[in-house]
């Protein structure tokens, strides 16, 4: 069962995802999806998105997929390692869909993979990441201290 409290906290605190205008959907335990339309603010050149935008979408997708599993034990996650393969250019106006799936979940480490496609269902990036699970109370305490 996905911990709605932890997901709610994540959504409320993810200012970067809000800035990038990423739309989150939890598909099921261990699977998450982000959708983003590439706008002018995402560009590195007059027509192509910055790779960091694609990496941010991927990191978010992988992290939320991991969070749906780790949250069951009152844990949140942080990125330990992120590997991205950029396969095709991402252009102004493209609508990207990034889907992440937990492949392996241990007590402390989770391994997650993602694929990113554009509106034409063309694969533009593949990725994997490792995430550290740690007690949510640490994250909640830090959130309270900063407010």
Automatic annotation (TrEMBL):
Q: Does the keyword Hydrolase apply?
A: yes
For molecular function, the Gene Ontology terms on record are: fatty acyl-CoA hydrolase activity
Q: Does the keyword Hydrolase apply?
A: yes
Q: What keywords is this UniProt entry annotated with?
A: Hydrolase
| Gene3D superfamilies on file | Hotdog Thioesterase
Show where the Thioesterase domain sits: 49-124
* Residue runs in coiled coils: none
SUPFAM superfamilies xrefs: Thioesterase/thiol ester dehydrase-isomerase (SSF54637)
Query: PANTHER family under this entry?
Result: ACYL-COENZYME A THIOESTERASE 13 (PTHR21660:SF1), THIOESTERASE SUPERFAMILY MEMBER-RELATED (PTHR21660)
What family does the database annotate? Belongs to the thioesterase PaaI family.
Q: What is this protein called?
A: PaaI family thioesterase
According to its UniProt entry, this protein's organism is: Brumimicrobium aurantiacum
Read off the lineage from the record: Bacteria, Pseudomonadati, Bacteroidota, Flavobacteriia, Flavobacteriales
